[in-house]
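Narrative of activities, Objective 1.

The group set out to show that a structural description can be obtained from nothing but a protein's sequence at a throughput compatible with the screening campaign. Below is one input-output pair from the validation batch, recorded exactly as produced.
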Amino acid sequence: NNNNNNNNNNNNNNNNNNNNNTGGEITVYRVKKEEVETKISAWQTAKIAKINNRFKREDAIIGGWENEQVHKASSWMKKVERKLEEKRAKAMEKMQNDIAKARRKAEERRASAEAKRGTKVAKVLEVASLMRAVGRPPAKRSFF
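Output recorded for this entry:
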């Protein structure tokens, strides 16, 4: 309602001014209105520029912080991977040593078993030879 009244008043003023041939008042009014609008636009532009500049600075700070956090996390991960690789290498070396030790021990046990077998076979051959020489067959339960 107020806007309509103002518009009507302005129209009436314009009509009155046009009728009275006072064009100077309209020009002064327009100039002042344009001056106010220019100041408002300049203020608006300055405030928005200030906000944008502050945002850019804040964004740069946030970006720097983000990069620092990413670098920190990456460094931590590399350190963990390095430690795991060292642990893996030690475990691999221990496993290879354990395998070599088991193979040596197995070889020793095989040699011992082979020697025992050879001794027992030699004893059987010796007893069999003795039995042949005497001409006596083995007893059903022979303990030697």
